Model the fold of this input.
Amino acid sequence: MENRNLYRTNQMLRARAGLPIVLLIVLGTGGAVWGQTQSAGAGESLAAWGKIVTVLQHPRCLNCHQLNSPLQEDSRRMHIPHVVRGADSHGVGPMRCGNCHNDGNNLTSRTPGAPEWSLAPVSMLWQGLSSGDLCRMLNDSARNGKRSPEALVEHMSSPLVLWGWNPGPGLEPVPIPHAEFINLMKVWVAGGTACPK
Ligand code: HEC
Ligand code: HEC
Done:
């Protein structure tokens, strides 16, 4: 019975002259979405960067991508108590980052946390960079931890970065949902990691 109904529906559909056009539109939209990440142009890449940079320059990311001491909260105030980088970027003496920052957010003390919590290396100083300079820094394997563009996309799902989407009580997460952010990164890379002037 079901087969017969299906057959009849097919017959009816075939009779409709509009069907090929509907099919073309469906295929066309799929192709556009596929093509967006597979073969984005420089214009799409640049547009994607314009959104990516709103995440990178958000305090959740910037507060650790500092020269000598981290910053705190949206006001980007000095970290209290005062802490400094030290030889391995994990702090000095009793002020080692891991003494207070654990593998996850501490909801009681309100201390944020993620594995290997530390300052980003000096070469990855983002504070004060324009959108274009930050873009070129990220693109420069001598300064980005020898990462290929594809490795950069992958790094955006590592624990320290993911913390920016789940910063714990009292802190605002970065502005773009993570899945959308990863898609933007893929478009940026597919279009040749275009940077503004
Ligand atoms: C707790 C401190 C901390 C926070 C918060 C943090 N980072 Fe980092 N970031 C680091 C450290 C440490 C490294 C070096 C890791 C490595 O090279 O393996 C790093 C490296 C990077 C890199 C490698 C390339 C480069 O040029 O800098 C990227 C990309 C990055 N972070 C993105 C982000 C984004 C996006 C956020 C916010 C959503 C963020 N980070 C938040 C500490 C932090
Ligand atoms: C003595 C404990 C202690 C030490 C040591 C310490 N922190 Fe913190 N840190 C805190 C506390 C508590 C907070 C949350 C304060 C608040 O915002 O209310 C914090 C917040 C932060 C923030 C702010 C996150 C945000 O976006 O607002 C960053 C970044 C940070 N710490 C990085 C570091 C780094 C890097 C080190 C090591 C160099 C370090 N901290 C060492 C206790 C510490």
The two ends are 66 Å apart (CA to CA). The chain is about 45% helix and 5% strand. Residues 63 and 108 are 22 Å apart (CA to CA).
